[in-house]
Structures are given as structure tokens and as C-alpha cells.
Amino acid sequence: PTHLHLPFGVRLERARDTRRMLRDGIRLVVDRVEAIDLGRRAVGTARSERLPYDVLVIATGSRLDKRSLPGFRDAAFNFHCHNSAERLRARLEDFAGGDVVLGAASETYRCPYAAPEFALLLDGWLRARKLRPKSRLHVLLPEPLAATLGPLGTALERRLAEADVRVCAPWAVASVDARARLVRGADGSEQ
Length: 191
Description:
The chain has helices at about 1-5, 20, 70-75, 80-95, 115-130, 145-150, 150-160, and strands at about 35, 40-45, 50, 100-105, 135-140, 165-170, 175, 180-185. The chain is built from seven helices and eight strands. The strands form three sheets. A three-stranded antiparallel β-sheet has the order 1-2-3, with no helix packed on it. It has a three-stranded parallel β-sheet with strand order 4-5-6. The relative contact order is 0.13. It is an alpha/beta fold.
């Protein structure tokens, strides 16, 4: 979440010693999984460690693939990595108003809170700079927040509406057109 605030000039702690955050009796192993032995209920790691388990939970993570969305590299910013968040901060410094489109590019995305949270942070940032009357904020999501987050999503949708942030969901992003300054949807619609 530290990069989410970076475009607004807020610098938060970027790294922590994860081991210090764990309770006694919890051991953190950072290694690549090479094998899962379901019969013996054990995981084998790249360093040849065998980790027995009672319950196996696999967190596959997510990777930002800028090539998977046509036009992204030429026209879009993200706040999921430090360098891109810094470029977005530089772009916002020159922003004098207009349309800002935020969203998730696919149904599987890092955090369902990120785009709406960023929209609300941007709303506050624009208000502080007297740019909100000159700006329109749009959030494009593959599913309604209520479907993704339940009652919290419903409350978040209300908060976005109060901030005059337009939420379009379901909306699947297909491509970004830098020249036309458009986001095209899988259904052929444009934002």
C-alpha cells in the first residue's frame, strides 16, 4: 500500500523486517516451491528443505503485465511499483483538471480496494488544490464493488458517489488508445 500514496507526495515505510512481525511459533520461509507431495503432506523447496503441513494454503500472488493490455505502456500509469508511482506523481504535479480514469484491467487484479481508494485519495488531493470542479473521476471495474466486497463494497460505492466519482461496473478494459485518449471496453464501449 505504500506506493498508493506516493503519487500524492506521501512517503511511507517501504520495507519491514517481516520476521519481527510474526508471533512466536511461526517460522517464515522465503524460498521457491519445487514440489508438493500430497500423500506425505509436505512441500519441497528449492533449497531442498522439506516442510510438512497439516493445511496447505498457496498464495500465488500477482504480477503486473503491462504487455497484456494494448496501449497501457504508452498511455497509462500504475501505483503498484515505486518507479511507476513516481512517474504518476510527476504527471499529477502538472495536472490542471480533466478526466481521470482509474481501473482494473482484468477480473483478477491485485486488490479490489486499490482503484476506489486511489480515487478517494485523488478526490481529496484535487479538492485541496481547488482542481476538483475542473476534474471528473471515473473508476472502471470488472465487477461491482458490492459483488466483490459485500456490504463493505456497498458502503464504498456510496462513498464514491458522495465524492462524485463515477463507477462503471461491470466494465472490462480491452485496450488503451494514447492518441485518442480513450479506454476501450471488451464490449466496444469507450471511456
